[in-house]
Amino acid sequence: MKITRRNFLQMLGITGAAAGGISHVWAIPDQWVEKLQYGPRIETWMVSTCSQCPGGCGIRVRSIDEIPVRIFGNPIAPVNSGFTCPMGEAGLELLYHPDRIRQPMRRKGKKGESSWEPISWEEALGQISKGFQGLLKKNQADRFGFIFGDRNTLLTHFAGDFVARTGSANFFPWRAPGINELGFWQAFEEFPPLAFDLNKTDYLLTFGTNLLEGPPSPVYFNRLYGKLKESRPRTGLKMVHVDARMSQAGKNATEWVQIRPGSMGVLALGMAYVILRDKNIDEEFIARYTQDFRGGKEDFPALVSRYYPPDKVSAITGVPPETLLRLAREFSSSKAPLALSGGVSDRSETALFTQWAVASLNALSRSFSVKGLWREPVPLPWGPTPVPSVNTRSGAFSLKPQLAPESDRPGHWASEELPHLRSAGKLPDLDMLMIAQVDPLYLSTDQKPWQEWLSRIPQVLQFATLIDDTSPYADLVLPTTTYLEQWDITLPVPNLPFSQLGLQQPIVPPLNGARPIGDVLLQLATETGVTLLPEKSKSYAGYVEARMKPIFASGKGTPYFEAVSLNFLEELRKLGWQVYSYPAFADFWRLLQEKGGWWDPGEYPEAEWKKRKKFTFPTVARFDALLKERVLLRYGQETQKGDTPLHTLLEAPSRKTETPDSFLLAPFTTLMNMTGEGASQPLLQEISGLIPRVYWKPWAEMHPERAKKLSLQDGDLIRVVSVKGSVTLSVKVVPTVSSEILAVPFGKGHKESGRYAKNIGTNPVALIDPLVDPLSGRTSWQSTRVRVEKVNK
After folding, report:
1. pTM to 2 decimals?
2. What is the per-residue DSSP string for 161-184?
3. pLDDT surpassing 90 at residue 36
4. Which of 6, 401, 350, 395 is closest to 164 using CA atoms?
5. Would you place residue 39 in the very low, low, confident or very high pLDDT band (cuts 50, 70, 90)?
6. Rounded CA separation 302/295 (Å)
């Protein structure tokens, strides 16, 4: 039954302000209509964990007569403490979306055509099982692959295990890297990266890292930023944000340093130059725990002194020399400096170069010696979990106990490059490909190779809640549940200094014929003779419950509990007591469902540098060796010219603006639409343009000087032209962007994804002429030059 949100709430007796706001069509199951009209209006609450992003926020869902009507934050969930973001609030719009797929769909026309016929689950699963059995009989398991959007839940591990147990190595996770992930892997061979505690720093320097509007956990960091800002008069904390555009992280910092796109690594090495000249370095840490700092002509000081003096760095970055000098001296003189890189910085041609340079600032300036600032994530008592990896030399994906130094990269760094790796012969031809929780045809910067690759694979199977941009290239689309209809566990959030497991439990049974992905994989495994579970679990829910038994047996941590001081908790522990009493696993499991999850209130232990590999500083020789491999390089500089060292090619940025109408396109993400999926939910569409006052439409942010030269004013229409196509946008003239860039919000411009997203706005990623960071394989969002033309109204 289709019903408006206002009707829905009014029928439940929720009137006035609570029923106000926008009114959109909600698809309510027909069997609920009688409850809506004649139910006794009994209020109940259930806790679970949000999965709109990987942040792991606990939620409380209010239901009337067992019909969910509102989502709130869980006040005892340690990540969000009762707060929630707009994406968390909008979860019911996904649950009740009127365009949710109701049964398996089989493509009728050619690939690329969104034409479908409904079939039964039995027919769909029979078709998939037959395909699987054919591959296994012919010992061709390596012709099966699975692209999986990693939302930091147990389901990702389960899907990876499914692939491995079929005998294939082709598991392709898709997610953004964590903060410092690229730099720490290169410098320490540390994966996942270390956690950090912002409460311990007195100087926070973020290179593109927008902790407030993107992963790993924006609600956690918004809460923490608020506390840190309140205490700033007492602590003297300084927060500096470096970026070409002033994001929310820049607005909430004490200083925003505007920089040319892609040049953050050069600024970090310029700061290192000043710190070395001032001899204000962490001598003890460098002597005991690093290498390549003192090695003669090819060491780190030689790199920065030869190539990154302040005047040259200023010319490349656009940061005035006096600002560079001041930042370097402030950072190195602070008691607890902390430099972070991520977000924008891992979406450039210089991603790994930048993060390695920023990591070096921490090694140089006593950051790693500060007590409690860096934390060692403690593995869960689950035994080793295979890590998806890609080999930099062969381009082959695999699941390994751990990444191999020198030759491996985390698999998710290169998943966007799959069609190109296949074209280069580094990936086998696939006969069957599964896709879940990700929309590659929307997210990819190079859509045509994706279309061609998916068109050649005989059987493409997609798990989806809505038909999306990838669906027309699937042969079967299977309707899957939302996070409000299924069991799962949200894993510890990367970079946070404590461990948490958020329990997802069904608030309502699966709607509209949808099935949980985990249960579908289990059924397929059973039908094809693949042993997926060593335990006796017959459902994914049973698997989730079984995974909590080692946590209970470890005796560590506790189900979420109301706020008490950690000191009080420690006293309880000394006496052998717990906040709760749960003598048997059944008691523990019941408490998890009542409270929403488990956490270990004791923070991760301090990083012990003597137990890990030495920190490797970047040098000319190391950069050149990495660049010569370049197996993941698709486009870019091909040859060394003259005496130019190869590593200086990584200073690229400098595609300077050549003509008055030329800009560097700079897509940016917002809290309302981090992954693009928010466009399907009308509340998020509505408020994504709240600050610029542009609703349901995209816009382009332009610096006033450039707008004046082009005779443009706020609200004027422009045509933005790249080699990939053109779009029309309205201009917002703002002083908070570099004059070289045209900043466009990411998230709109879907070809599908339901009525609230389809053909609304434009997707700036589709304009990108993609270049790839040759050291990491990450695709750049900040390398495409566009031309701007005024559109006469």
Report:
1. 0.93
2. HHHHHHT---EEEE-PPPTTHHHH
3. no
4. 401
5. confident
6. 9
Q: Residue 312, SS3?
A: helix
**758 or 777, higher pLDDT:** 758
Pair 636, 771: CB distance under 8 Å: yes
| DSSP category for residue 779 | B
Check: CB of residue 247 under 8 Å from CB of residue 668.
Answer: yes
CA distances (Å), 149 to each of 175, 384, 412, in order?
Answer: 6, 21, 9
SS3 state at 302: helix
CA-nearest of 621, 563, 566, 570 to 595 is 563
Q: Which residues lie below 8 Å from residue 353, measured CB to CB, with a gap of 6+?
A: 265, 618, 623, 647, 650, 773, 775
DSSP-derived secondary structure for 47-115 = EEE--SSTT--EEEEEEETTEEEEEEE-TT-TTTTT---HHHHTHHHHHT-TT---S-EEE-SSTT---
Q: Whole-angstrom distance between the N-terminal and C-terminal Cα of the chain?
A: 42
Distant-in-sequence, close-in-space partners of 288: CB < 8 Å, separation ≥ 6: 609, 610
For residue 216, cis peptide bond before it (omega within 30 degrees of 0): yes
Pairing of strands 387-391, 397-400: antiparallel
Digit-coded pLDDT (tens) for 628-646: 765 554 544 444 445 556 5
Among 535, 103, 128, 168, CA closest to 159: 168
| Amino acid at position 220, single letter | Y
Beta strands 717-722 and 785-790: pairing type? antiparallel
Per residue in 365-422, pLDDT tens?
999 999 999 999 999 988 888 899 998 778 889 999 889 887 888 999 989 999 998 9
Q: Encode 778-792: b = buried (16+ Cβ within 10 Å), e = exposed.
A: bbbbbbbbbbbeeee
Hunting for tokens 């941009």 — which residue is that?
Answer: 469
Nearest to 399 by CA among 627, 568, 166, 564: 166
The full 3-state SS of 181-240, as one line of letters, equals HHHHHHHHCCCCCCEECHHHCCEEEEECCCCCCCCCCHHHHHHHHHHHHHCHHHHCCEEE
Residue 14 has pLDDT above 60, yes or no: no
pLDDT by residue (tens digit) across 61-106? 999 999 999 999 999 999 999 999 999 999 999 999 999 999 999 9
pLDDT at 294 (0 to 100): 87
377: tokens are 């994530």
Q: Is the pLDDT of residue 17 over 50?
A: no
Triad 350, 352, 355: Cα angle to 5°:
100
Query: How far is the C-alpha of 728 from the C-alpha of 546, rounded, in Å?
Result: 53
